[in-house]
Design brief:
With about 190 residues, the chain is mainly alpha-helical. It has helices at about 15-25, 40-45, 60-90, 90-110, 125-145, 150, 155-165, 165-170, 175-190; strands at about 5-10, 30-35. Helix 5 (about 125-145) crosses helix 9. The longest helix has 27 residues, at about 60-90. It is found in: Cytoplasm, Cytosol.
Length: about 190
C-alpha cells in the first residue's frame, strides 16, 4: 500500500515552495492542503507544534550533503529576517535590511560563481532553499528600491534555469500576485502605498 503524504502549506511560503519543488523533483505524490496562517489547522499544530517547518531530504555524498546543508542553513538564517523587513518596515529599519540583504546576495552570487546550479550541474537542496525568494524579488525591488535584476545577473540567470524545471515553475507563485499581496498588507498594516 502506498503511503499517503500530505503537505500543509501556504501559497506564498518560501519554505512551502521548497517542499513542493523537492517533492516534484523526487516524483513523490502528495496531497496539497492550503493553510490559513491566521487560523492554523489542528493537524498543522499537532504535526509541527514548535517550528512549523517541513523537512526536505536530498541524497548526495556526505561532503556535498554537508556543504548543501551549510548553505541552506545560511539562507535560512541570513535571508528571511532582512527580506521580511524589506516589505514590512520603512525608514531606517528597511534601509538596514536592504544593506544586509544585498550582502547576502553578494555572498550567494559568489558561491554560485559560474556553476549551473549551486551544487554544480545538479539541481539540489541549496537551489530549493533559495529559489522561493525569487518570486519575491520584484516585491523587494518595488518596496525597497532595490535593483536585484541589474546588480546580480548570475543569480537571475540561475533563477531562469531553475524556472525551466517543472517542479519550480509549478511551485512558485506569480511575482505580480506576491507584490499585490504585500502592497495590500502594507496599506492595511503600515498605511504605506
Amino acid at each position: 500500500m502506498e503511503e499517503e503524504i500530505i503537505l500543509l502549506d501556504y501559497w506564498a511560503s518560501m519554505y512551502g515552495m521548497r517542499t513542493r519543488i523537492a517533492l516534484e523533483e523526487k516524483k513523490v505524490k502528495y496531497e496539497y492542503r492550503e493553510e490559513d496562517l491566521s487560523n492554523k489547522s489542528p493537524l498543522l499544530l499537532q504535526m509541527n507544534p514548535i517550528h512549523k517547518k517541513i523537512p526536505v531530504l536530498i541524497h548526495k555524498d556526505p561532503y556535498q550533503r554537508a556543504q548543501a546543508r551549510f548553505w541552506a542553513d545560511y539562507i535560512d538564517k541570513k535571508t528571511y529576517v532582512p527580506c521580511k523587513a524589506l516589505w514590512s518596515e520603512s525608514g531606517e529599519k528597511q534601509e538596514a535590511a536592504k544593506i544586509e540583504f544585498i550582502e547576502v546576495l553578494k555572498t550567494l552570487d559568489s558561491e554560485l560563481g559560474d556553476k549551473y546550479y549551486f551544487g554544480g550541474n545538479e539541481f539540489g537542496l541549496v537551489d530549493i532553499a533559495f529559489i522561493g525568494f525569487y518570486s519575491w524579488f520584484r516585491t523587494y525591488e518595488e518596496v525597497a528600491n532595490l535593483s536585484i535584476v541589474l546588480e546580480f545577473p548570475k543569480l537571475m540567470a540561475w533563477a531562469q534555469r531553475c524556472l525551466k524545471r517543472e517542479s519550480v515553475a509549478k511551485a512558485l507563485p506569480d511575482s505580480d500576485k506576491v507584490l499585490k499581496s504585500v502592497s495590500d498588507h502594507r496599506k492595511i498594516i503600515l498605511g504605506i502605498d
